[in-house]
Design a protein that fits this description.
Rossmann fold; globular; alpha/beta; 39% helix; 297 residues; 11 helices; binds S-adenosylmethionine; two-stranded parallel sheet; eight-stranded mixed β-sheet
């Protein structure tokens, strides 16, 4: 791991091209061919999900209720089986610690940790991470390219086979140089796919600008995608409330069309990822963005 230095960047506020780039990609389709190794990995993930439900583990929660749990801090117990099958993604899971935390929190739902680094994934599920306990049976790790995995997962969502009530994107590489900004997830052609995938997406980062950009990019995409009659309301409301106040260090945008975007600093009681632990020990401020879209447009 590359130490716990704060992010240094030649960028002091939101990237000057953020809006232009996000708008462009909101109207285009990312066509890069999907790598064979990620197709193969995806088949394994599908197989894990299928077996998890066929083995009869407690049943798939109703996504609506799961979303309420996540937003309101409840649990996913006592919910009934419905189609589509609920699947949780932990994208860029690194050594997979967060996958275990999420899997324990939502034992009824298969949780797929995805990373491209074999070295990191090889550490997943080790006894230090699990405190000597068994790896939860709903946790699964797979080596894959996220930009491809997300498109394959969206096909399953569109086919009505999967729903993704929660999607963790914890501490992605920040790409802090302005010249590398289009490698940030929210300035990449795949961002609309990422938003379309999950009902609740939680991004965590130690770079405030990344969090603010991610929240603003989500607002822009939704303001383009929602039906015309609702556009003015949402655009006005979210643009205004997303104006960030450095004094209260948090902002929230909510509209009455089922979209909620929260951007705030937070202090995890106990770290859930290797990077989170490093940053906390270094007393860095951590940021999270929670995007909840209860309706697809
Ligand atoms: C900064 S690390 C954070 C890891 C973990 N979430 C944590 O908090 O400890 C970012 C991770 O994302 C993975 N990653 C970055 N881009 C990726 C991509 N396009 N596909 C798959 N994994 C990717 C890296 O391999 C790395 O493990």
């Amino acid at each position: 791991m590359s130490g716990a230095n704060s992010v240094t960047s030649n960028q002091e506020t939101l990237h000057k091209d953020l809006e232009k780039v996000v708008r462009k990609y909101a109207r285009t389709t990312f066509l890069r061919p999907i790598a064979d190794h990620t197709r193969e990995a995806f088949v394994k993930a599908e197989e894990f999900v299928r077996k998890f439900y066929e083995d009869g583990r407690k049943g798939a929660p109703v996504p609506e209720q799961v979303r309420d749990d996540i937003v309101c801090g409840g649990t996913s117990e006592n919910v009934a089986r419905t189609a589509p099958r609920a699947v949780i993604l932990d994208s860029g899971c690194g050594t997979g610690e967060s996958t275990i935390h999420i899997a324990r929190k939502y034992p009824n739902i298969p949780v797929i940790g995805i990373d491209k680094s074999c070295d990191r994934l090889n550490k997943a599920g080790n006894p230090v991470q699990t405190s000597g306990e068994e790896v939860p049976p709903n946790a699964f790790w797979i080596r894959a390219e996220l930009l491809d995995f997300w498109r394959l997962a969206l096909d399953r969502v569109k086919a009505g086979e999967w729903s993704i009530p929660y999607h963790a994107v914890y501490y992605p590489n920040p790409w802090p140089k302005q010249s590398e900004a289009t490698r940030r997830f929210h300035m990449h052609p795949t961002f609309p796919t990422l938003l379309a995938l999950g009902e609740t997406i939680e991004l965590r980062t130690n770079w405030e600008i990344y969090a603010r950009e991610f929240a603003e990019a989500a607002r822009i995409v939704y303001s383009i995608q929602i039906p015309d009659q609702a556009r003015n309301d949402v655009q006005g409301l979210t643009a205004r409330t997303l104006e960030f106040s450095l004094e209260n260090r948090s902002c929230q945008a909510r509209d009455d069309k089922g979209i909620k975007i929260t951007c705030e600093s937070f202090n995890p009681v106990s770290p859930e990822t290797a990077f989170e632990r490093k940053y906390k020990e270094a007393r860095q401020t951590l940021w999270r963005v929670i995007v909840t879209a209860s309706r697809q447009f």
